[in-house]
Fold this sequence. Notes:
Blueprint: H1 2-23, E1 25-29, E2 32-40, E3 46-52, H2 74-79, H3 91-96, E4 100-104, H4 111-122, H5 130-134, H6 138-141, E5 151-156, H7 167-185, H8 194-199, H9 203-217, E6 222-227, H10 233-236, H11 240-250, H12 255-266, E7 271-278, H13 282-286, E8 295-296, E9 309-310, H14 311-322, H15 331-342, E10 357-358, H16 360-372, H17 384-388, H18 391-397, H19 406-416, E11 419-421, H20 435-444, E12 449-454, E13 457-461, H21 465-476, H22 488-501, H23 504-518, H24 521-526, H25 528-539, E14 545-549, E15 560-564, E16 574-583, H26 589-607, H27 610-615, E17 620-629, E18 632-638
Parallel strand pairs: 4-7, 4-8, 5-6, 6-7, 16-17
Antiparallel strand pairs: 1-2, 2-3, 9-10, 11-13, 12-13, 14-15, 15-16, 17-18
Amino acid sequence: xxxxxxxxxxxxxxxxxxxxxxxxxxxxxxxxxxxxxxxxxxxxxxxxxxxxxxxxxxxxxxxxxxxxxxxxxxxxxxxxxxxxxxxxxxxxxxxxxxxxxxxxxxxxxxxxxxxxxxxxxxxxxxxxxxxxxxxxxxxxxxxxxxxxxxxxxxxxxxxxxxxxxxxxxxxxxxxxxxxxxxxxxxxxxxxxxxxxxxxxxxxxxxxxxxxxxxxxxxxxxxxxxxxxxxxxxxxxxxxxxxxxxxxxxxxxxxxxxxxxxxxxxxxxxxxxxxxxxxxxxxxxxxxxxxxxxxxxxxxxxxxxxxxxxxxxxxxxxxxxxxxxxxxxxxxxxxxxxxxxxxxxxxxxxxxxxxxxxxxxxxxxxxxxxxxxxxxxxxxxxxxxxxxxxxxxxxxxxxxxxxxxxxxxxxxxxxxxxxxxxxxxxxxxxxxxxxxxxxxxxxxxxxxxxxxxxxxxxxxxxxxxxxxxxxxxxxxxxxxxxxxxxxxxxxxxxxxxxxxxxxxxxxxxxxxxxxxxxxxxxxxxxxxxxxxxxxxxxxxxxxxxxxxxxxxxxxxxxxxxxxxxxxxxxxxxxxxxxxxxxxxxxxxxxxxxxxxxxxxxxxxxxxxxxxxxxxxxxxxxxxxxxxxxxxxxxxxxxxx
Length: 639
């Protein structure tokens, strides 16, 4: 029996050996099961290969700092060892500034994280956490006298539920929650029973007055932070009725005005400092006589770099992750990819030509996706959340008939490449559509950036591709009251054919058809501005290209260079220069031919520039000449 079992065992071993010889074997190596495949090559020699057995593979967490994308709590960022761009060097500058500090920046730019950082620095209850939170930062090495010496009261108006017709209830609820929290965490510093007595008061205005009065009795100092103070600006841009309600609430005996009157009263009591953020100066102006002691530092050169990232800060971040993660690009190559999309914000005339700022949220979005994609740029360079933040702009643009200046300013911006104006620190909501106020509003929303001066006024341009894409998308919807509803499928097919099959005739024919179909009589009167702006807006929707108009370049006079996004779509086949000319309806055919010849000359000249040669890679460059006569397109040809 034993001999028989032994023979069977030997036979089984031989079968297993032959099977492994033919089919391969599994080996445990460095914590991972590896399948080694074998076979015989044409030369008769044994060949081997391997595949990871993913079912058995052990997950190894990357040894690098977490990217704080979407995170706004400073303490959590520090506790979880996230990458933090040190902005604490601005704390001493803030302390030297006026004690009641207004600061406006676009949404999703890092305001809330800055507020959170300041809260933790000044919070008396966080004194024992100072070294853990700030020890290795600038302010940890050079702390100020006021560190951890205030009772911090934080209000965030963006969290208030309700519209203007019923917002009082939401304001009262939010304030009571935050006032109660304040009483709980500072119970050791406040009179006994303060929370119960406060809750017996009616409404935010009355409760607030009671709170800062009681703090004053015990000699306590309050640092008041209000984030998104202008949350209600969303509503006033929506319709005239909301504007009427808003005016009632911010003037006379309105509730919002009464609340800020109490803030002002508190500054004569225990409120020693205020730090108030928002995205628009509109509410500030309407509340001025209610709170007229604050200083607006939004345009101050001293604070240009306080929120957002400088290029050096982005470079340092990329350099760090390049040493801890898999990169397929150099740091300089990644900066070249990111810069046209996220950079070029300037928030102070005195800093123009010195320092531009990157949108910090978009930088974190890009780096996170780059690492998650094993060193590949994200296919969508614009995060989906940021599109929602531009809805206020859409409301303004779509009021073309009511707001006499809006469309002309925006279309001038698109066609001319810049606009000029005097940036206003504040203005009332009722004057929101006067030219300088509207330009200022676009600037504060982050849709424009300072680009120097022109004829004694501030010159402003679209900062980057993220803004350009959103602006053009909403601009298209104003060309017809029923909206420009071409199908997404059709748009994607045309864009793909342009990029991969070189079908430019169908693409530009489609644009010409839409232009003619949706142009109003008012648009036709604008002529060249409208044609150029519409074409640029349409090409900006093509996901395969970054359209560069003549105003973005220094060499040549090309109207539109469709710069291929090869870092995302590396297999693209075609790139384009589009030279666009416009003749009036009444112009002769000889004038059309004259413009055609001009376009050919300019397209050829620009094709030879270094800008184009460096950008097109291995794609085939097409030089397209387009001449419109009125709203018709008699010429569309390749040079």
